[in-house]
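User: ok so my PI wants both of these folded by tonight, can you help

Assistant: No problem, let's get them done. Here's the first:
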Amino acid sequence: MGDLTRSFAAVVCCFAIAGFALGQESTPANMRAQKTTSSNSAYIAQALTAAPPGVAKGAGVARIDKDGNMQTLRESNNGFTCMVMLNTVMCADGNSMAFFGAAMKKQPPPDKLGLTYMLRGDQGASNTDPSATKKTTDNHWVVTGPHIMIVGAGVKDLGLPDSADADPTKPYLMWAGTPYAHAMIPVRGGTSHATSTNTTPEKQDMKKMK
């Protein structure tokens, strides 16, 4: 996730550099400040949609800058930080941030319970390879609708299904068999948005018949 974000930021930066740099010279400083403020406000509003209103009200907001560094746009008053990652919005507590930070660095994750809200769903991930950044024919790519994630070693004892071909309309264990296993708990509206790309039409028909 970290490498992908940095690559994305670099592409955006290179694409914009020619026109934007020239525009900086001819655009008054006050107008540039207004544009930045407007952009930040829109980003903050989008990021906060990841969490329920009660959590979003006191959550902080961060953005990954063009160099891959985290920039705080709003301080957190409740321990949660919301952000936008490649059109996916999430709002995570401190333990979850540490957990996914360890996953990005391929380091052992902390054994602490953490909670992350993703009420807008996600864009998909491999259910077998935590480092995968795109779908392949055999990496069990799964797209989950609105959900919450619970991290920490204790989730392995919840008895959740841990099949590589997860049913994202029901609670399941993602990345089972790795140090980064975590619980995926669909919430309201999850069924209409979630899809498993490894579920064949025949399997879907059989589920409907049950």
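One down. Here's the second:
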Amino acid sequence: MPTTHPLITADQLPALRGAYIYLEPATEAHRELLRPDTYDTQFDDYYNIALATTVNEDGQAFVIRQTKDDRILGMTRVHNVVRKDKGCEIGHTWYIPSVWGQVHNKECKLLLLTHLFERLGFARVAFRVAHQNIRSQKAVEKIGGVKEGVLRKATIRNDGTWRNTVVFSIIDDEWPEKKISLRGLVANHQTVSL
């Protein structure tokens, strides 16, 4: 694995620390720490792909930790990086159920989007959500994602059924305004103690 990564270097890690959460690059050492909080029988396949994203330098997988006690709350990825077009996606994000709807996801996206737009110069960050996952679609809209459309029969699920994918994005021209709104959501949110 490279000592530095095209999306995050050791000196940039403090920028991915907020009041409630911080992000650290996912490694093999996190696998068993994450496993108890997963409910997916495909966890090892998922985690192998996440780590390969980093090794192949087309993204970065992160573990999401709670600032106050270092507890692992979930995981997220920057992936499908296309440097020529200055675009990428944020996705494959999950949290333990006890923090759903709390401040953690909002601050995670604020930290990642600030890093991607302001430090790395990306022009477009996309989010892809399964059509039936209304909760996640609302979460993406709440952080400022603009719905672009639906990719019909975009992928086949593990059970063989089709999944439509709803695509959202934020572009660099919109980011300053969206950042103000997202900062407000984080600042005004009352967290519950875990």
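Residues 19 and 67 are 7 Å apart (CA to CA). The first helix runs from residue 31 to 34. Good luck tonight!
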